[in-house]
């Protein structure tokens, strides 16, 4: 590794400006590869901590172009429920639309529409057959004749425009505008109902242009497992709930424990995207990439809630760790920089030296969307939220039975995390917007149009993009505000 990056961290560097190419920073594209098969439009990842990323934070992150991992400091059932809730949050394709048989009395169809609060129903040939026969909208309902059948008032199949499975949001929108209809049934080659696109859901999707979504327009969601105990049972539950990516998260990812866990996971779930961490060295990152990780999470002890470096003496300065990891994976998989970020400019520095995305904890822990409640600090009178490392004593207790706290702490490994209070700052959405705009400014200052291209150039030629080893006076001039 270059001497340039040895024993350094974020405040040792500034980014060198280059000749600008953009008319406006708003034109800068921030899309980055998160894992082997997932890209996101804002390179931010919510930390898998129980005071950072739960269901609400995951929804907010994905709606605004980021990603995250729901924490595992809860029961398997609760984690799976949170994953499922995020996947249900939005979709431009309704996966299991309401359908009624064509021989149902209109009276019963009216009742269903009223109870379910929908504007219409798909009609199938017979109840449970799934074969599309037509569409019945609220406008088709007669004022009387409630005993007549749905088939007498529906728009029949031969007058419908339908789409095949796999239709894109853009194609569905184009077709619906052409036919001037608010519903587009999705069917397979046998005419069986596979979904429904509605104009209302399309418009909702367009309100969040940066959203991290799957092929059906549903929000992407990540979830966390460990490497021992019930980790395979937990993996099965969150994958069944349709998690898009699983994170195996342990303190020391460069280990035989991780090897066994990844081999077990890959044997049973070979098609599920897998992120592994944490590591802090070139060899550690190479080890995880060789195992088949789809992204590598990097950071040993840089975070606010972590005391590993203090309690054990082990760690690697975060800029050096990121650079080592980048060199270790040799471009095979993306790098997620986890921890140590104090301000928005350090996100750019992490990406310029080798990270593809950056995981945030304390920067977003004080928001409405993070788990936990707002309280008042009695000394400062400020509104605060709790933030803690996942090996802090209270986090360990929350994973177990509070009836015997002394026994739990005595039988657990020595804690390397600590609890803190973070100032309450409102919603996470303005924070994401601010970070996005600052990263767009960085792209503009560095003379390119896309963050991915700046990343590619900077990691290949860091001397052209970094001013390093700032003197104490230069640091004061730069950061003392």
From TrEMBL:
Which InterPro entries does UniProt cross-reference here?
A: Aldolase_TIM, CBS_dom, CBS_dom_sf, IMP_DH, IMP_DH_GMPRt
What family does the entry list?
Belongs to the IMPDH/GMPR family.
Keyword Oxidoreductase set for record? yes
Q: Which GO terms describe its biological process?
A: GTP biosynthetic process
Q: Which CDD domains match?
A: CBS_pair_IMPDH, IMPDH
Q: Please give the Gene3D superfamilies that the UniProt record associates with this protein.
A: Aldolase class I
Q: Which residues form the CBS domain?
A: 154-215
Residues the entry annotates as binding K(+): 301, 303, 306
Q: Which GO terms describe its molecular function?
A: IMP dehydrogenase activity; metal ion binding
Binding residues for NAD(+): 249-251, 299-301
One Pfam family from the record: IMPDH
So which domain of life are we looking at?
Answer: Bacteria
Q: Which organism is it from?
A: Candidatus Yanofskybacteria bacterium RIFOXYD1_FULL_42_10
Entry protein name: CBS domain-containing protein
Query: Keyword set for this entry?
Result: CBS domain, Metal-binding, NAD, Oxidoreductase, Potassium
